[in-house]
Please model this.
Amino acid sequence: MLLTIANVPRDYAWGSDSLIADLEGRAPSGSPEAEVWFGDHPGDPADVDGGGTLDAVTGGTLPYLLKLLAAAAPLSIQVHPTRDQAREGFAREAGRDAADPARNYRDDNHKPELIVALSDRFEALGGLRPVADTLRLLSGFPDSSGVDELRSRLGGDEAAALRATIGWLLSGGAQAAVDEIIEGLAEADADGFAETLRAVRGIAERNPGDPGVVVALLMNHLVLRPGEAIFLRAGLLHAYISGLGVEIMAASDNVLRGGLTPKHIDVGELLAVVDTTPGEVPVQAPAGGDVTSYDIPVDDFALRRVQVAGETRVPVAGPAMALVVAGSITVAAGSGPERPVRAGAAAFATADETELALRGTGQVFIAEPGRA
Model:
């Protein structure tokens, strides 16, 4: 069975007022439009053409959630738990009200995710930079006791020092140092870090006095071009800064926050979940041909980017989605009729379908359960 699905953009404050509207070929709504969810997650199941929502079709069993994401301002710095951490945390918080803002675990699942850039430029923070490089960045700051304190705390074992430094920054006792470091951003100039400093200055302007600005200084700054992607595993600190992308993740709502947000920050639980081992986050480039399969080392989801010019037949396994992000595309499954799918909408194929026929000219993302 093949269905056409769509959804209404979610109006989170960090959302863009134009990126999703432009993709869908309509006038902006006048409000921020941050995410469009394509899935059966109870928080916002997709609407089925003809009536009803996708969860009524799937029974809420999809292992993944596919999204359009449009950021005009930085999202909170955050990290997601492993499966074991999620199961233990969810059981521990079972007595808390689901609406309690201090609740960390909304379900017992992990939440690895992949983001693929659609816009010409998609900026993100991902993972923690090697300490030697961060010290080189800090050498470009004007002298202050706050900068000196940060440098001194980064000595010794890297992972341990980064964990302790993040705890110090977020626990409330470092505000004087945070203010001095943020003040120094205006004059900071370090070779090879111009783009990073520009990005963190922008973050500081939107989040004055927030300790998360200094956490951001410890992280890798990433710029993705169209079709490029990053996979964010459990435990990896990250934040999206700006741009339009396709995001796919395990079906979970477990988020531990680490700054740049007015929402609850549980410093102890964040430090229990975050992996502070420094290192680069690999950027996956699009393939040279019409189909790019992204490297996703989990079994919750798989994602392919397909350039369609004429007719393309794509094998699928398990309940699959074909999300159209550009052009004019029809989708068919088995011997069923073709269904036109506009940009910003998707076709959903139930698990009994084994192939999708894409016809037209445009770009489509195929989501399905993973095979890792």
User: Anything to note?
Assistant: The two ends are 26 Å apart (CA to CA).
